[in-house]
Write a sequence for this structure.
């Protein structure tokens, strides 16, 4: 076979070009840390990586939803615990009031009950991120309002103004979990004829009036409501635990997805660098040979 | 007749012959880098001898003809290879553009904007009254609609670019056909003398090589030295050049189809183009691919619009998106007012990301997008690996063609050495003959 000038140089040029392409690909891999730089590098892995990134994105969304639900329930939990404390104190006051104390003492008890009611209503109107936590889905409506007279004594408390719908968040594919408990189940009904707030108000009125029969009646009613409060508190506590568990489950799924994504999309640095060194050596050899080509010519010997 | 003067005559023609040979060598060397050039060789033949008493005496040599060293079979194969390579590298180039315009690795691109759109609804579900969350949904919807529009617009621009390049390529093909027709004319008239028109053939070979980059064709050489060109479009064989008459290609940008006019002036209009090789085939295929991906984007956008709107308000009085395709998707004007947003269906809309949809081939939005990415990758891989394969083949055929027709400097140097020595030997004969003649003249000089 005759080896001619153009074919020799065309071949050399192509070799140099190809080696440079290889080097360029490897340096880009090393600097980006990515194994697949465009779809054609590995079409299947590319679309899998895309799917994984979006799956992880949705897991992040689920976790954000859970963070929100946890925050909401911590506010609810806090409110319920404090109301429970207040109700305990009210019960003590009721027991004291049954043994017919002096007028001064009765006034002091009435005043304290007044404060307890005010605080309880405040707690029932707790907010999380500007939303009333005990209003059902009526997030911008306070569940209860109270009316005071000029002296600051509580006159009446409104009935429950929220609704009984659940606020839900998505915590998994097709999974929705309720976040809230509504005020009607905890504090009082819309007709204002039952519930702890109503009972506290009745107790205060009975203590003020020194009506021991009524006090005894209310004390029994409050006892039942107290049980309910603890029950609701337990619901919230269970939810908090469940959310925590769900979150750590999502965490482990996410870590798993991330490591799979890394397997698919990330470059194996050790391999890239050793390949890079190999190609460099080859490239240097090609350059050296190209230099020699000019020497290997009959004209130099004539 | 035999004698010193004949010897001188023979030496003179040897000197002249060697000058022709050295000129040919020089011509070869000066064209060493020209790939379209086929090396030339001069043919020496012995002059007719004449009869003497001693027998037949030779009268030296003469240059019969200067001819080219070519292998037409390899050349035709090379052109087919060039056409194929050009086809696939054109496709690979445009698919790479499509891949860049639609690049989506899940962290950037449409899927990311779509993901943010779903997340915005999740956030709205947490705080349905929040102005920030409402605004978040609006801007996520706007970004998504914008991304779809921009992606579609870049595909449209790409298709227009491909179409204008197709028009330009067709013009170039027609120019080359006319050029080859005129070379045919010159070559057939030059060669009527019986001597090959070497350098004109080089020019025609160059034009043929140029043509093979643009379109796949086959050619045959006629007895008068002209060549005829024809191509295969599907099952139709189209003649494009016959002797001195060129046919032409016609491109209709509206239908995107190429039709033909043969050298006799007959129109040939195929229902669809199925060309084999050449940039033109690559351009037509790339245009088709661009349309395919464009359609996929439209299907995705249409499904997004319908599904989101239907969940948002089944009566379709209130809408999130206007439009019917990726090119015209936009956020509904009323939806852009944060106060008027209905947050009730927020979670249902967010759940849409996990819904398998019939119109998307029973897959989720993200699967459909992933499928587009995978298809782009596979197409590009296919085109570039074919281009690489054809490139290697062309390289091989080129080496083969150059092995026959290319100029080897070393070989020419040896030729030159040879010619130089023959020239010197002939000069020596002139020199010797001169001295002999001097001796003869000296003998005469002693007279008187």
């Amino acid at each position: 076979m005759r080896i001619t000038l153009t074919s020799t140089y065309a071949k050399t040029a192509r070799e140099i070009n190809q080696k440079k392409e290889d080097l360029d690909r490897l340096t880009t891999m090393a600097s980006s840390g990515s194994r697949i730089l465009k779809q054609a590098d590995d079409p299947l892995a590319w679309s899998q990586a895309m799917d994984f990134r979006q799956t992880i994105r949705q897991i992040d969304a689920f976790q954000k939803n859970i963070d929100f639900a946890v925050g909401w329930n911590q506010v609810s939990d806090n409110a319920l615990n404090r109301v429970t404390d207040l109700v305990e104190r009210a019960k003590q006051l009721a027991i004291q009031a049954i043994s017919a104390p002096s007028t001064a003492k009765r006034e002091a008890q009435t005043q304290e009950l007044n404060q307890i009611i005010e605080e309880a209503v405040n707690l029932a109107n707790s907010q999380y991120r500007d939303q009333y936590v005990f209003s059902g889905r009526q997030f911008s409506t306070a569940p209860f309002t109270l009316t005071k007279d000029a002296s600051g004594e509580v006159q009446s408390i409104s009935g429950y103004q929220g609704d009984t719908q659940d606020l839900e968040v998505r915590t998994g594919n097709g999974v929705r979990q309720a976040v809230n408990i509504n005020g009607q189940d905890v504090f009082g009904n819309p007709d204002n004829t039952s519930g702890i707030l109503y009972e506290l108000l009745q107790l205060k009125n009975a203590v003020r009036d020194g009506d021991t029969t009524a006090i005894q009646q209310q004390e029994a009613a409050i006892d039942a409501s107290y049980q309910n409060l603890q029950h609701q508190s337990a619901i919230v506590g269970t939810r908090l635990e469940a959310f925590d568990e769900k979150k750590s489950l999502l965490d482990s799924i996410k870590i798993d997805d991330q490591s799979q994504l890394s397997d698919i999309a990330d470059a194996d640095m050790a391999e890239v660098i050793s390949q890079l060194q190999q190609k460099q050596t080859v490239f240097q050899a090609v350059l050296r040979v190209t230099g020699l080509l000019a020497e290997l010519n009959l004209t130099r010997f004539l | 007749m035999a004698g010193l003067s004949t010897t001188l005559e023979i030496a003179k023609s040897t000197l002249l012959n060697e000058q022709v040979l050295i000129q040919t060598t020089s011509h070869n060397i000066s064209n060493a880098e020209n790939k379209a050039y086929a090396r030339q060789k001069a043919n020496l033949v012995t002059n007719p001898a004449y009869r003497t008493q001693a027998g037949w005496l030779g009268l030296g040599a003469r240059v019969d003809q200067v001819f080219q060293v070519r292998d037409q079979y390899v050349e035709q194969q090379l052109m087919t290879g060039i056409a194929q390579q050009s086809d696939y590298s054109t496709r690979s180039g445009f698919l790479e553009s499509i891949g860049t315009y639609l690049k989506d690795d899940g962290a950037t691109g449409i899927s990311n904007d779509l993901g943010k759109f779903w997340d915005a609804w999740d956030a709205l579900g947490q705080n349905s009254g929040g102005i920030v969350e409402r605004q978040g949904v609006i801007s996520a919807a706007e970004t998504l609609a914008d991304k779809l529009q921009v992606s579609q617009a870049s595909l449209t621009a790409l298709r227009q670019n491909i179409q204008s390049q197709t028009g330009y390529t067709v013009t170039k093909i027609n120019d080359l056909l006319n050029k080859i027709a005129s070379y045919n004319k010159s070559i057939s008239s030059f060669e009527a003398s019986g001597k090959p028109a070497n350098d004109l053939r080089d020019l025609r070979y160059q034009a043929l090589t140029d043509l093979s980059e643009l379109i796949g064709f086959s050619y045959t050489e006629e007895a008068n030295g002209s060549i005829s060109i024809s191509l295969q479009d599907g099952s139709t064989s189209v003649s494009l050049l016959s002797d001195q008459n060129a046919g032409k290609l016609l491109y209709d940008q509206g239908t995107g189809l190429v039709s033909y006019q043969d050298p006799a002036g007959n129109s040939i209009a195929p229902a669809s183009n199925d060309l084999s090789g050449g940039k033109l085939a690559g351009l037509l295929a790339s245009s088709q691919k661009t349309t395919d991906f464009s359609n996929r984007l439209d299907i995705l956008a249409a499904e997004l619009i319908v599904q989101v709107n239907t969940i948002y308000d089944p009566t379709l009085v209130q809408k999130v998106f206007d439009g019917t395709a990726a090119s015209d998707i936009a956020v509904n004007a009323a939806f852009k007012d944060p106060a008027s947003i209905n947050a009730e269906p927020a979670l249902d809309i967010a759940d849409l990301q996990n819904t398998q949809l019939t119109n998307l081939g029973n897959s989720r939005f993200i699967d459909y997008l992933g499928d587009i990415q995978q298809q782009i990758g596979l197409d590009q891989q296919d085109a570039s690996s074919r281009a690489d394969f054809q490139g290697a083949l062309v390289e091989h055929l080129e080496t083969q063609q150059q092995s026959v027709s290319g100029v080897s400097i070393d070989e020419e140097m040896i030729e030159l050495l040879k010619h130089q020595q023959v020239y010197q030997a002939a000069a020596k004969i002139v020199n010797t003959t001169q001295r002999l003649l001097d001796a003869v003249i000296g003998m005469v000089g002693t007279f008187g």
